[in-house]
Design brief:
Helices cover 46% and strands 20% of the residues. It is an alpha/beta fold. The strands form two sheets. Strands 2-1-3-4-5-11 form a six-stranded parallel sheet, sandwiched between helices. A six-stranded mixed sheet has the order 7-6-8-9-10-12, with helices on both faces. β6, α6 and β7 form a beta-alpha-beta unit.
Length: 316
């Protein structure tokens, strides 16, 4: 992995992982509970966690609640009953699972919370989601001010307000656009968490607002769908003044940038999906070993464009 842009954080994580995880971290039963595996970046992170665990002689059971908090509670209860040693949970609703996570910890199970700040956890591996939204909005605003006279253009936002952390991102995007590109107008705001939702939402937006030039997305799934919708509108021609700004360094966003399509900038969170899987796995092993650490571990935000894309990709 080339990590020039993320060397500080990733090196620290990897060094700690290599120096603190010992043979006693083998033969662990790990439960990994995510919101949905239809989101490519989460699916790839889960894949990498499973791969690393297998190499270490650990067993990972992956479940998805499909965005249903009650289902996730049941899944965590099952992990407790099964005698799981460690649970990595990406909460659908952090408040809803606080009590079951408390029960898990009382049973001696370590809890690593992925993407949310919880009380009943050993470690929270989290993003400052508002700041992430601000970075997306700032990058889009800089581009708007460069491409459009007086910064006047129409913008669409693909958010996901039903998930609190993603609403924080959306608010950060909107606040940054308002501050740095005050003459840009957000003419549409629709939810989209995956490629299908992004495609459908963007097609609807373009029918009503054909002059939309900039799309800001809270995640890579919506961005992938928006890219397909814009390709359907413009065909092989990619206007210089149309662009997507998002987060999650997915395969689709990488291909879009490499092919000169509509993704202009992606804020990588720690790194690509596989680097993120490595990071959360190493952190979880440190937790399993009882290493002393802060409860909140914040992830680094790295803006990625075609100029620094290659250094963010896995080595072939």
């Amino acid at each position: 992995m080339k990590r020039k842009a993320v060397a500080g954080l990733m090196a620290a994580i990897m060094v700690m992982g290599l120096t603190t995880v010992s043979a006693s971290a083998a033969d662990l039963k790990i439960g990994l509970a995510v919101q949905t595996l239809s989101n490519q970046v989460w699916a790839q992170q889960a894949e990498q966690i499973q791969k690393r665990a297998q190499e270490d002689g650990n067993e990972v059971t992956v479940v998805e609640c499909k965005e249903n908090a009650n289902t996730q509670i049941d899944q965590l209860e099952n992990f407790i009953t099964a005698g799981t040693d460690l649970i990595i949970v990406q909460p659908q609703d952090p408040d809803a699972i606080e009590e079951i996570c408390k029960e898990a910890r009382e049973a001696g199970i370590k809890i690593v919370c992925w993407d949310e700040e919880m009380e009943n956890s050993d470690v929270n591996w989290i993003i400052k989601n508002y700041d992430l939204g601000v970075e997306i909005g700032n990058q889009a605003a800089d581009w708007i001010n460069e491409k459009f006279e007086d910064g006047t253009c129409e913008v669409a936002v693909l958010g996901y307000p039903q998930t609190p952390i993603l609403l924080e991102r959306e608010n950060g995007i909107l606040d940054a656009l308002k501050e740095k590109a005050p003459n840009a107008t957000v003419v549409a705001n629709q939810p989209a968490i995956d490629t299908t939702e992004g495609l459908n939402a963007m097609e609807t937006i373009l029918q009503a607002n054909p002059d939309v030039k900039v799309v800001c997305c809270i995640g890579g799934g919506g961005a992938a769908g928006a890219n397909e919708a814009l390709k359907g509108t413009y065909g092989s021609e990619v206007p210089d003044d149309v662009g997507i700004f998002s987060t999650d360094l997915t395969d689709e966003s990488v291909a879009s940038m490499q092919n000169g399509e509509f993704n202009r900038m992606v804020v990588a969170i720690t790194g690509n999906a596989y680097a993120c899987g490595d990071a959360v796995y190493d952190l979880s092993m440190e937790c399993a070993e009882g290493k002393e650490m802060d409860q909140n571990v914040y992830r680094e935000l790295v803006p990625v464009t075609i100029d620094n894309l290659e250094e963010m990709l896995p080595e072939k």
